[in-house]
Amino acid sequence: MEMFLYGFMQRAFQASLVISLIAPMLGLFLILRRQSLMADTLSHVSLAGVALGLLVSVNPTWTNILMVVVIAVLLEYMRMLYRTYSEVSIAILMSAGMALALFLISLSQGGSTLNIEKFLFGSIVTISMEQVWILYILAGIILCLYLVFRKAMYVMVFDEETAFTAGLPIKTMSILFNALTGITIAIIMPIVGALLVSAILILPAAISMRLSRSFSSTILIGIPITLTGMLSGLVTSYEYGTPPGATITLILVTILIVITIANKLVQVFKMNKSWNKKQT
Questions:
Q1: Is residue 99 scored above 80 in pLDDT?
Q2: How far, rounded to the nearest angstrom, does the alpha carbon of residue 60 sit from its chain's CA centroid?
């Protein structure tokens, strides 16, 4: 039994290493584009993809990926449709994704419902070697695209109109970014669960933004932060039998609180030092 669990833990650690390379990058772009809730939307849709796979007896990984890619295209279309109120498209697709997931779950048998719970809350025994290899390939694609389109994405994030005027393929880049984010969520979800998968993308980027003002350094700092949260969360989850997603999220939130307090203390110290110099 221990060797059985050791194999799953080994795969979970490999997945954590790959996730730590791409999560800060995707999370930073989501935050800068003010689309943090898009990760939640795609996680809800991913749950519907899992339910569909279990219902039709197909590997949930593939139905999951197919579902999020379709929604990624719809998300960009609806974002353009509701350009002034872009959050409307996220709200519509989030509720539709959850409604579809619940509808498909209700059609499933009892065994499928139990499997859904693993994807809902996360479990180290749900990660397969196939998913780890998909993560490796996905990380390679994301890193290559980042190196090629880094400047274009930077311009698009801060000024979409300027990027459009410059002739950049805004719609194609947005759809591709949404699709890659959705696929990443679909692969990560078995480890951390659909309810908290978005936190794994957003929190490391949010934490590293408190430590750096540079675009590239924010991503670089986010890598060890993500790795620390993932590995410590998985070990704690294994030792105490807690849900992996909840454990990882709480550790990342704790890191954010500690860094925020430390930054405030440093600011107070600098202000006091400056004040003392003026007095003397």
A1: yes
A2: 19
User: What's the pTM?
Assistant: 0.84
DSSP state letters, the chain: -HHHHHHHHHHHHHHHHHHHHHHHHHHHHHHHTT-HHHHHHHHHHHHHHHHHHHHTTS-HHHHHHHHHHHHHHHHHHHHHHTSTTHHHHHHHHHHHHHHHHHHHHHHS-HHHHHHHHHHHH--GGG--HHHHHHHHHHHHHHHHHHHHHHHHHHHHHH-HHHHHHTT--HHHHHHHHHHHHHHHHHHHHHHH-TTTHHHHHHHHHHHHHTT--SHHHHHHHHHHHHHHHHHHHHHHHHHH---HHHHHHHHHHHHHHHHHHHHHHHHHHHHHHHHHHHH-
124-130: long-range contacts, CB 8 A cutoff, minimum separation 24: 124/5, 124/8, 124/9, 124/12, 124/191, 124/234, 124/237, 124/238, 124/244, 125/5, 125/8, 126/190, 126/191, 127/8, 127/11, 127/12, 127/15, 127/190, 127/191, 128/11, 128/61, 129/11, 130/61
Question: What is the model's pLDDT at position 112?
Answer: 53
pLDDT(120) > 80: no
Distance (Å, whole) CA 152 – CA 264? 34
Please give the Cα distance from 17 to 8 (Å, whole number).
14
